């Protein structure tokens, strides 16, 4: 499984890269802020909602600390998706936040 540091994702966001981020945290956690442009799909819904994702795009998965996003990466990797786990999750992320 590929991994990315929070420093790497902040640099990509600062460079206006077209990223496809999936936040697998629960609703109450997401209310505290998300990575700008991220799509919210709670871990328990990842498998059922995989059909909503474009299999030709790479995805970066994030959660609070990195464990749930790792589980989500495993689910999507088995379905043939190109996924990267954000190491340390939102606890390590110190970039801009978006509130929904």
Structure explained in plain terms:
The protein is of the alpha/beta class and 100 residues long. It is 33% helix and 18% strand. The protein has helices at 6-14, 27-30, 46-49, 67-78, 89-92; strands spanning 2-4, 21-23, 39-40, 58-62, 82-86. The chain has a 5-stranded parallel β-sheet with strand order 1-5-4-2-3. Helix 4 (67-78) links the parallel strand 4 and strand 5. This is Rhodanese.
Condensed summary:
This protein is of the alpha/beta class and 100 residues long. The chain has 5 helices and 5 strands; from the N terminus they run βαβαβαβαβα. Strands 1-5-4-2-3 form a 5-stranded parallel β-sheet.
Task: List the keywords.
Rhodanese-like_dom_sf; single chain; Rhodanese-like_dom; GlpE_sulfurtransferase; 5-stranded parallel beta sheet; 100 residues; Oxidized Rhodanese, domain 1; alpha/beta
* CATH domain class: Alpha Beta
> CATH topology, what is it called?
Oxidized Rhodanese, domain 1
The CATH architecture term is: 3-Layer(aba) Sandwich
DSSP E strands, number: 5
Give, in spatial order, the strands making up the sheet with the most strands. Answer: 1-5-4-2-3
Q: Give the fraction of residues assigned to helices.
A: 25-40%
- The helix-strand sequence is EHEHEHEHEH
Our estimate of the beta-strand percent is: 15-25%
Number of domains: 1
Q: Any idea what the shape is?
A: globular
Task: Determine the oligomeric state from the structure.
Answer: single chain
Low-confidence runs = none
Biggest sheet details: 5 strands, parallel
Average pLDDT figure: 97
Give the N-terminus to C-terminus distance in angstroms.
29 Å
Q: Can you identify the CATH superfamily? A: Rhodanese-like domain
């Amino acid at each position: 499984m590929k991994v990315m540091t929070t420093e790497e994702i902040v640099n990509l966001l600062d460079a206006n890269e077209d990223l496809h981020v999936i936040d697998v945290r629960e609703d109450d956690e997401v209310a505290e802020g998300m990575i700008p442009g991220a799509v919210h799909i709670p871990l328990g819904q990842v498998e059922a909602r995989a059909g909503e994702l474009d299999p030709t795009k790479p995805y970066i998965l994030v959660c609070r600390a990195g464990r749930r996003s790792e589980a989500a990466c495993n689910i999507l990797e088995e379905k043939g998706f190109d996924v990267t786990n954000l190491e340390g999750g939102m606890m390590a992320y110190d970039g801009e936040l978006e509130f929904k």
